[in-house]
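Protein: Iron ABC transporter permease
Species: Metabacillus halosaccharovorans
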Amino acid sequence: MILKSNYQKSIGLILGLSLLLLLMCGSLVFGYADTNLKTVYDAFTSFNGTNEHIIVYEVRLPRALIGATVGASLALAGAIMQALTKNPLASPSVFGINAGAGFFIVVAVTFFYVNSYQGFTLIAFAGAAFSAFIVYFVGSFGREGLTPMKLTLAGAAMAALFSSLTQGLLVVNEAALDQVLFWLAGSIQGRKLESLFTVLPYILPAIIISLILSQKINVLTMGEDVAKGLGQRTGFVKLTGALLVIILGGGAVAVSGPIAFIGIVIPHFARFIVGNDYRWIFPYCVVLGGSLLVFADILARYIVMPEEIPVGVMTAIIGTPFFIYIARRGFNQS
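Structure follows.
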């Protein structure tokens, strides 16, 4: 189903953006509280302080905006990682970046009593960077050097290590457990717009730079020797891509906690639609990643209503079969 012409891809992108906006509207309407489109419209045009208007304006609006931003960030980070590592399973969750960021935040909460959004953001960036460095270092050991298989194994090992350390800290600190347990499951419930505004100055430029970098990544995927022959500074491109992954992944974790599988599923789906041109894969990842997370969040409200399950559980349910399918196909980049 690969779209051939730029015109078709442009129309597809517009449709994807329309889907994202439609789902965000649905996020404002659907939930345990009985609301409809008129209620949502009135909440923005003639706010009167009723429970329905407060729910729309102060609860559901932040969830819709945060869901779209986090989904876009994770999908784009996964696409960059898959391009740079030539590994179809690469994503912030599989390579331990989410787990590393989450572990650093739990350490900060447990020992340093950090509770500000700005603090969470900076600490998540540090944790993501540390995890990425460790995975790259461990994956480079051996006679063959860095390979997709070794990267995946190193990432899985680091993710398991950071997750175990996180659980160990929470066992000995019940106060921290109460504060971060729901966050660690991956959730955008109860998040305020303040948390989004804290990370947006980092995430938005990262998205824009990623779109600009897409042409250079296209060249790099042809092979490092070819890219160097065409005059590209491959080291600069790789370093920039790594920094973008840290910002996008760390920023997403700071807001919503570690949410898995968005970074795996969406890049492959985008590649299925537009082929291997990263000038199109990246913008498709932005709109489709946001759409998937907002859709998963809507479903999470209804599974065990009136209670809600964390959206990270929903993305795991959606993404696990796809992960198994990709793993069974092997490590040949599509």
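Remarks: The first helix runs from residue 6 to 29.
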